[in-house]
Amino acid sequence: MTEARVGRLVPACLHQAIQDALPLRLDFYEHWLNSEGLHDGSIGLAPLTAVLGFLRTEGDAYNHVVERAGTLAAEWTVASMSPFQRRVVAALPRPLRVRAALRQACDIVRQVSSLSQAKRRVRRGHAYLEVQSSFFCSVREKQRAPLCNFYAAAAAETLRAFGVSANGRAERCRAVEGTTCSMTIDIGDRADGPASAERAAS
Predict the structure, then answer these.
(1) Is 189 in a helix, a strand, or coil?
(2) CB under 8 Å to 107, separation ≥6 — which residues?
(3) Per-residue model confidence as pLDDT tens digits over 1-45
(4) Closest CA to 30 of 14, 9, 46
(5) Strands 117-123 and 166-172, how do they pair?
(6) Rounded CA gap, 71 and 55, in Å?
(7) Which residues of 71-106 are buried (b: 16+ CB within 10 A; e: fewer)?
(8) 194 SS3 class
(9) How far is CA 36 from the centre of its chain?
(10) Alpha-carbon dihedral angle through residues 199, 103, 99, 13, given to the nearest 10 degrees
């Protein structure tokens, strides 16, 4: 069986999110999320699994951290696009802009783990993101609440970055039900024009 490989994105986002949400615990987590590993991209699956395991013992802070990490992942991914790419997406009509933003959200899923894949669809004011082999939800024991709100936050923030009002949540979680993880993103019904999208993406 192929072992999952994690990219540079999620360790950096988790480190910053812990600093934002749990600043007094940062020293503890830097045992695994150390500066050398963050710099050279050498933080692998085992230390990240340990970080997530300890985060789950922090109560409500777990969701605060992973949602913040998802938001950061979207912000940094959009910022890494070339100015030309951002302008092209921002100039699209709103329906096409939504789909382009969701493609970016799917790219974030793949950046998190080499074994994760995402499917997306849009219907009647809602976007749906289905994540297979969620990195956050690979746990031995069944959980009571979804663990994959990273992806919901990332998808919603990617849409917002291009001027589309959005809020995301995990509807179904592999760690809870043993199935794929499903996110629902509520898309605002206001008319977002290309100008507002370009301001958000600049």
Answers:
(1) coil
(2) 77
(3) 456 788 899 999 999 999 999 999 999 999 999 999 999 989 999
(4) 14
(5) unpaired
(6) 17
(7) bbbbbebbeeeeeeebeebbebebeebbebbbebbb
(8) helix
(9) 23
(10) -50
CATH architecture for residues 9-201: 2-Layer Sandwich (3.30)
Q: What's this model's pTM, rounded to 2 decimal places? A: 0.91
C-alpha 119 chain-centroid distance: 14
| Pair of tokens at residue 85 | 């790419």
* Tens of pLDDT, residues 169-180: 999 999 999 889
Residue with tokens 């600093």: 19
User: Which segments within the chain are labelled E, that is strand?
Assistant: 117-123, 126-132, 166-172, 181-187
For β-strands 181-187 and 126-132, DSSP reports them as antiparallel
